[in-house]
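Sanity check

After download, print the first record. It should look like this:
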Amino acid sequence: MNVLARLALAWNALRGRGPASALTPAAAAPAVQTQERLYAGAEVGRLTADWNPINTSADAELVTSMRLLRGRCRQLVRDNEHAKNALRIIGNNIIGSGIGMQALVKTASGKLVSRINDDIESAWQSWCAAESCHSAARLSFADLEQVAIKSIARDGEVLIRKVKKAFGKDNKIPFALEIIEADRLVDVYSQATAPGTGNRIRMGVEIDDWDRPVAYWLYPVHPGDYQFSTFVASRYLRVPADEIIHLYLIDRWPQTRGEPWFHTALKRLNNMGGYEEAEIVAARASASIMGLITSPETPEPDDIEGGERLTDLTPGTVHHLQPGEQFTGFAPTRPNASLEPFMRHMLRAVAAGVGCSYESLSRDYSQSNYSSSRLALLDDRDLWRMVQGWFIRNFRAQIHREWLEAAVLAGELSSIRDFFDNRRKYTDAVRFKPRGWSWIDPTKEVGAYKEAVRCGFMTVADVISQTAAGADPEDIFKARREELDLMAELDLVFDTDPAQVDDKGKGQVIQPAAEQEDAPAEANAPEPDADDSNETAAGESGDPDADDAQQAAAA
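Expected structure tokens:
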């Protein structure tokens, strides 16, 4: 093809004639749509240009924010009624009046040894007094639990030091607890090296290569009273990790320190406080203005004080305006009609961040019916039970083991003589009784629990633990037996006695005495009391298993 033919072909292509595909193959090809394998949440575009989080470790995020988060949480709990109520709800639902303890030491045949269990529970109750369990003699054990769980929620963490010393006049058990606020951990250094061991110190916690705590570095006093400018090991207290219980919830691992439970709601609570204050100021200003008077002339000097004209207003009076003056009434727009629904919306978000229901946080039940309120309470209780289990596993179980060993060493539990040969037999034989909750609808729930027990889905002890505020099933059974015996002694019949009256209020058919006499003597013969024999045996040898073997050999 010569030059002229090529020019003609190019000219026709520019004018839209001829086989343009020969010169512009890309234009003739179909458009190709670009696709990417990408999550929608990871899309980068105009609407997400300002959303650029950094992938850092949990400790890297905490070290820069921990002190400020803790201070803001404390300020809100001091000054904001909703934050104060949220902390109160947490303490009341997780701890309440205290987590109870029931000793369950058994023989090899599974029989409870009442004497040993009673001795353990009696010694525990005596030790729980403030002068014995608290190093400063200010907090009983139930109060100490309340302070601990509130510190965890407000500050994110708390340190509890185990002091191997007997406090109190009549206490001989060398074991007490000291509560240490998280501020005393040396957290100004993100990382340092422990002298002598070479271990890492991350925000005051000395850890080994497996991130296990080895020791805790503490300020001698609260850092709000005293500050240090440089890290000098001799100026700090190094407390071994086996003396410290560091309580905090772990969201990511590794995580050396805890975060306050209020951290997601802090900005919203602060904004709510500022908005509410602005609305109150606006309402007060609006209420202070009754109307405006316009006048073509300057007011007389006698009516002016401080540059403003004064008018006396009293109820039931009629005022006359000066010639040419005109009064215009002021119609305030405050209080704002949108304030209440807006604050409800904000409080719902705060409740979600803290972990409780809106109804519990706001004490406002006008926006819900019975079913929705009941569902919210049940969801709350599931969360509280989870936190109760966490608190028992990480605090109460450890305290019980070390307290029991100290009590045995101090001679306060003389009925236990083989503790160090069968340590876990005694330390693990315990049931912790966190607080339960009362019925929401007793008519329906009592019937449901009754059916669950009859079908074998639950035990009576399970029902008592969930509804009797941490009461001891054994104590309830004994109290019930005493009540029935007293009613029989006084010849009283109530429909609360199922042996006398059925669930419909009708009397039960009691077997006549003549038939009971004709019954075989073996069937009517009373069985020996296993508890009494175990108590006597345990009192003689102090080893319930040996007593069982001895009784079997004698038989």
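If your output differs, re-run the checksum step. Summary of this record's structure: The two ends are 123 Å apart (CA to CA).
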